[in-house]
């Protein structure tokens, strides 16, 4: 186990009707004027937005609103929010929505806190935010874990680059998580969320670092619970316990718990950013489900025992000690079958990705040839092209690709 720092300053307010506490919480911290940032019509249609605004009014908190955040949030919307915050002297940003709204809010908070710096420079890793407006969240979709994480991802729609960076400024001050608010999430988006939660855990679990047994067991338990809850929520969208498990698992999957003691980089996430950056209609979770099985088959020969452990401990597959690769591949197949059962794609062709775009995606993912992604197998442009091609037609690409 490597040295690590575990830092989770976000105050979690979890359970039924907790969204009604928004005004009291904002007042408790002494903020005077709030930007309430949200997505589309659902926040209004469900009455959630009105309930949040009423709670602010009851506590005498001034506010301005900015809606319209789309899936895969865009830079121009964040810049609009930055201008609004500066104009209105906002001192707190309240995100009402899922990961896209929260990430847009974090970007706004960074920009408003550093008005003399173009916020996109942070995503190009050319500068680091020195401060930011504090952010709170009211979560409506269990998926990204942004409500408790240090990460933020934004798409620059002018060039199609989807980029993220981590910062201590991104940890929300508080997050209100009421599982009942996710009842209205449709089956497809529930499936996308389940995949995203699993992927945040899997991308940490399949790292190069050895001797992390306790962290491994935490990750395996989180994965098993997410799989069970994902199945239940898919069948009954108002199963409170299933929704609660998914919501809590989403937070724990991305707050640093399942990466304690590990060195990791989310290769599949990086490759997926090029899918949904170039094709904004692609939901992040769907892009991940379409890529992960091909990535796993590409790299598993280099850590067969780790993939076999995953198969045994998460999917209850019997270990074939004479042929551990069979066990490893069975675990990958079980994951792929689960994604299919949720209505998730397992190829990028299903998402409408054109084969001729593969080289461009790989080029962008390497930052035009300036980086390689460390992992079980280090990925450069050629390796990414192979994985993208496998993910285009997984059934014809063969059961496993041996690299090196």
TrEMBL record:
Residue ranges annotated for the Fe-containing alcohol dehydrogenase-like C-terminal domain, each copy included: 193-392
Enzyme's top EC category: oxidoreductase
Start and end residues of each Alcohol dehydrogenase iron-type/glycerol dehydrogenase GldA domain: 9-179
Keywords from the UniProt entry: Oxidoreductase
InterPro entries for the chain: ADH_Fe/GldA (IPR001670), ADH_Fe_C (IPR056798), BDH-like (IPR044731)
Entry EC no(s): 1.1.1.-
Family matches, as PANTHER family: ALCOHOL DEHYDROGENASE YQHD (PTHR43633)
Protein name: Iron-containing alcohol dehydrogenase
Organism: Enterocloster hominis
